[in-house]
Design goal:
alpha/beta; 342 residues; two-stranded antiparallel sheet; 12 strands; 14 helices; single chain
């Protein structure tokens, strides 16, 4: 079976790590490039994390291109201040201080991939061109349409659309982790990736490219439990052991710092959902085509994905919003993919 050509745009991050393991280990995707963006951590750390993960799982030939630290319009500092303000009601003073230094520190730790020590002197290096140029190069050179899978803020993808509008016909679909329709975590309609770069999110959602949105509505239903992590560790290979260690750390940190979710012995693996849906669309058991708009000029709701699920606006649907997936098959896919890596 012919592999599906993809570009993965990510900000590793524990769930991004699992997305990369799934993408590579599935043997169903032709990963033309991995590009990085600041989100869960600084661009230096997310790029280092992507290089480390890909090298460790055996994806040594997948090119990695570094993206940008700041969102398209706003500064990284402003993003951190907005995030701290958005979660002020549910955070302690110590957590607010930690959050003010690194955007995703509460869930992912100081490096963005706390919980595992990768070997030093990684031979894998970044490409000499930046993320947006790499994306454009892949699209331009491809004989077939390419699916873009963003699992972090949409800065790179937004810039690609603005800089190279002539390449839009070369994009098969954007399968992204981001947004929320009805699930409330901090404030209504708010999700981390869209909150970080609202302007880029708006550009992407108004691009006319087919979009499938795997937001909090589905990722907090498709949960990975301790039994699945144990299965990964029992594989006995280095990828399984790495994934198990990192997911255990993520489960502990995520659940400790998001107490309002009342999760125990389970954790979301947000970003892997957007990859899994490309590998096997039949995993999606519930979705709706909706009109989705992005707030960019509000005091409290910048980055909100406003999903018109009641059909009040009478505007054309522009996004497939996913609400549920086949969880057992999804988890089996994660374990199998980890077993296919080093």
């Amino acid at each position: 079976m012919k592999k599906i050509p993809v570009i993965i745009d990510c900000d590793p991050g524990h769930d991004d790590m699992m997305a990369l393991v799934l993408a590579y280990g599935s043997n169903k995707l032709d990963i033309r490039a991995v590009t990085t963006v600041a989100g869960n951590n600084t661009i230096e750390n997310t790029t280092r994390n992507a290089l480390n993960v890909l090298n460790y799982i055996g994806a040594k030939d997948v090119p990695v291109a570094k993206g940008f630290q700041d969102p398209i319009v706003r500064t990284h500092k402003a993003v951190m201040e907005r995030m701290a303000a958005a979660r002020r009601e549910t955070m302690t003073e110590e957590q607010r201080k930690e959050q003010s230094k690194i955007t995703g520190a509460l869930a992912h730790g100081v490096t963005g991939l706390d919980g595992f020590s990768f070997p030093e002197n990684n031979p894998k290096q970044i490409e000499p061109i930046r993320a947006v140029e790499m994306m454009a190069k892949v699209l331009r050179e491809s004989q077939e349409k390419v699916t873009i899978i963003p699992t972090g803020p949409l800065t790179n993808v937004g810039l690609l659309i603005r800089a190279f509008p002539d390449l839009l016909p070369k994009i098969e679909r954007i399968s992204l982790m981001g947004g929320t329709s009805e699930f409330v975590l901090t404030r209504p309609f708010m999700e981390f990736n869209t909150l970080v770069d609202p302007e880029a999110t708006k550009i992407v959602f108004e691009s006319g490219v087919p979009i499938t949105m795997y937001g909090y509505d589905v990722t907090y239903r498709v949960l990975c439990g301790v039994d699945t992590i144990d299965r990964m560790e029992a594989l006995g290979n280095q990828t399984g052991k790495m994934a198990a260690a990192l997911l255990r750390f993520f489960m502990e940190r995520h659940n400790k710092n998001l107490k309002q979710l009342h999760l125990k012995d389970v954790t979301p693996i947000h970003d892997a959902c957007a990859v899994a849906g490309v590998i096997d669309p039949s995993l999606v058991t519930e979705s709706r085509m909706l009109h989705v708009d992005i707030e960019t000029s509000g005091q409290y709701f910048d980055g909100a994905t406003i999903c018109d699920y009641a059909g009040c606006l009478g505007l054309p649907a522009n996004v497939e919003v996913v609400y549920n997936m086949d969880t057992p098959r999804f988890l089996d896919m994660l374990v199998e993919s980890a077993g296919n890596c080093l």
